[in-house]
Every structure is written in C-alpha cells, then in structure tokens.
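BUG: 3D viewer hangs when loading the predicted structure for this chain

Environment: internal workstation, default settings.
Expected: structure renders.
Actual: progress bar stalls at 90%.

Input used:
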Amino acid sequence: MSAINPVDIPLGLRQALESGDCVLFIGAGIGSHLLKGASATPDAKILAVDLTTDFKIDTKGSTPALPKASQIVELRKGRAELEAYLQKRLCGVEPDEAFRWIASRRWRAIFTTNYDDGIERAYELTATPPQTPIPMAMTSDLSVFDRRFQVPLYYLHGKLCGTGKSRIIITENDYAEFRKQRQMMFELLKSEFATSPFLYIGYGNQDPNWNMLLEEIRAEFLPAEPPQSYRVAPSIDPFDDEILQSKKIISISSTFDDFQKSATLALVGSTVPQDALSRIQQTVPPELRAAFDKMSTAEQNQATWAE
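Structure tokens produced before the viewer hung:
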C-alpha cells in the first residue's frame, strides 16, 4: 500500500458517514480515478480540446469551453455524432480502488453532474455493497426506492451510458433548456440540501456548474442555514476557503486518494447507531421477530446496516 498523507476528517463529517446520512455530490474532478484503458477520464477542459481537435475545428488559437465546443460540433456534425463521440470517450470506464470506496459506504443520496458510468461500475465491482444504486437521469426516471437497501443516484446533467435515452446537458443550448427536463430532480436536490450534510468531491470553487447549483439552492432557503457540508479539494485558495465557510462548507485540503484512505482508517470499527436496531426491529414482520431477537450481535449489525 502506498504511503498515506493523513487527513483530518472533521467530526461532523465522520458522524454523517457513520450514520449514512451524508449526501455525496460528485463532479468531473474525480476523473483521474476513472480509467478508460490506460487513460483517465478527461475533465471538461481536456474534453473541449479533444473535441475541437478530433472534429478539426479551427479555434483561432483559443480553445472554447466545453459547452461552446459541443455546440459547434452539434451544429456542424449533428447531435447523434456528438453523443456517439462522448459515449466512446466516457462509457465503459473502470474505477480504481480509491473510487470504489464510494460503493462501500452508505449514502442518503448521490448526485453527479458527470455523464459516465463510473459510479454504477464501482457498485458492480463491490462484492457486498451496503446499498444498490437506483440511477435516475430525467424526471420520467424518478421511482420509489427503499433507503434501507437502495441509494438514489441522480444524474443531474443526464446519463450517456447504458440502455435508454437521456439527452445530456452539454451544449450552450442545453444549459438554457435543461431545467424543463429535470425540474423535479432539482426539487429533490433542494430538499436534501436543506436537511442533510453534503460531501462534494471533484469540484473546484471556480467550477461554474457547482457555483450555479450552490447559489441557486442557497437562495431558496435564505435566511435559513443549511446543515454543515464539506468539500474535498487538492488545493484551496484561502479567500475561497473563507467565503465557503461563510456558506457552511468546510474545505478539506487533500487529494481524493488521501482522503479516502484517511476516512477508511477513521471509520474502522464504526458502530451501528444505538437506535438502529430498534428502528429495523419495527420493520420486521411479527412472525419473524423471535428469529431476529435470537440473531447474534454481528448478524444483527449486518442486517441493521441495510436499514
């Protein structure tokens, strides 16, 4: 095992991870942990460069941002060719060991602005994940789920991989129209934001998607304060850190690799919350109560983590 640069896991975050009450929010900055062959999944900047290069778009010496580059490709080549290219680049990724840690923890919900299938693949590679992901990419995908055994996985900008159609949000025109397609998903995001601690991974403070989402959601609840949330970032500007703290977001200066290793060590021996057994017992049918009461402590703990 490679050396660990210890990371201090804030007590509030540790408690949220232990209880399964934390909401995970994943951005493109996590791409280095998702491999396509020998290469990491490209972030927005790299993907914009690759689009203009592979589609032979003359950028006049200045590469446009991904939404504009995608818009040009769509105009010149068509939507089908744009999405086929993106599927080739982003689907079928393999998460590394650090990324697979995500599937080993319980989450209240997972939101992502990424298009790839890395999260679902992480769960597939985990022998006994505590939850099964329920992917949803459009309002029409929304379905009933049981938090005891399942975790909702919301693709806020659409889903490229797998069966079914889900128009992704990537061009400038898409961003102008996207709320019409996913209004209910954003209502669910607002609800979670108001009541649950978030852990943001893969977002820089200058990320326009993250900033837009954060500010719009905060505006809905002012002057009420959301729960304390956390962001993992390899480098943190002190001014950004001060501003984010005023918004109830603590920045953890760390690579995701070091954070994952430190969190794993910090959570070793995590115990089941004291009231969890009583909560799960209430859901056990009367005819099975006697069998449940006779279970060993270890067996009860394992059953309880499905709660």
